[in-house]
Write a structure and sequence with these properties.
- It is a single chain.
- About 45% of the residues lie in helices and about 15% in strands.
- With about 200 residues, it is α+β, with helices and mostly antiparallel strands.
- Helix 1 packs across helix 3, helix 3 runs antiparallel to helix 4 and helix 5 packs antiparallel against helix 6.
- The two termini are about 30 Å apart.
- Strand 2 and strand 3 form a beta hairpin.
- Strands 2-3-1-4 form a 4-stranded antiparallel sheet.
- It folds into 2 domains: about 80 residues, Alpha-Beta Plaits (2-Layer Sandwich), CATH 3.30.70.890; about 90 residues, Alpha-Beta Plaits.
């Protein structure tokens, strides 16, 4: 878990019997000159509005859920939705870290679902193909959770899958997604491992 302000980080445990499944929808990202930059501006607009009523904040990460609701009238409906995504997503990250530390994969899956719904409905960066891939994954036995990942407007989903079910889930997702979209997805089964590290040599 990375703190992008201080650059401090902590490694979180992922059970050895769990695989990370990356599903490429084969829809290219279209956010470079459009929606992604718009979302950034909208978040900056939200921050400027909230600084007027919460002068101690420096970024949306400094806003609590209660403060956001208390000052909701300071934001337009669209900006409120963007801010709500950021504030609730930061809260979900902290709760997901706790879920990993305690091995609560059911809670982690629930948080992944909430995250995808927020990205789809509040941040509005999902697309039908991403939603479909998540829906298909959530219907499979052995899938703890699924959500889109990255900047949105195309790209990939990330799924938390039981190792024993991973190959079957991969094949089923490939078959059903292709049948419904006409696109052949690329699906990778990944195993979490320790990150890169410097090793002292004598």
């Amino acid at each position: 878990m990375l703190d992008c302000r201080s650059l401090n980080f902590v490694s979180l445990p992922i059970p050895g019997n769990v695989r990370l499944m990356v599903c490429n929808t084969m829809v290219r990202h279209e956010h470079a000159s459009g929606g992604y930059n718009t979302r950034r501006r909208e978040c900056e607009d939200g921050l400027r509005a909230l600084i007027q009523v919460l002068p101690g904040i420096e970024a949306l990460r400094d806003v609590t859920l209660d403060e956001m609701e208390q000052h909701r009238e300071s934001l337009s409906p669209v900006i409120y939705k963007r801010v709500r995504h950021v504030v609730t997503e930061n809260d979900r990250v902290k709760r997901a870290a706790s879920a990993l530390e305690t091995g609560d994969l059911a809670l982690l899956g629930q948080l992944m679902a909430e995250s995808h719904h927020s990205l789809r409905d509040d941040y509005e960066v999902s697309i039908p193909e991403l939603d479909l891939m998540v829906e298909l994954a959530n219907g499979q036995q052995g899938v703890y959770g699924a959500r889109m990942t990255g900047g949105g407007f195309g790209g990939c989903t990330i799924n938390l899958v039981d190792e024993a079910c991973a190959k079957r889930v991969q094949e089923e997702l490939e078959r059903r997604y292709a049948a419904e979209t006409g696109l052949k997805p690329t699906i990778l089964i990944c195993e979490a491992s320790d990150g890169a590290a410097a090793v002292a040599t004598s």
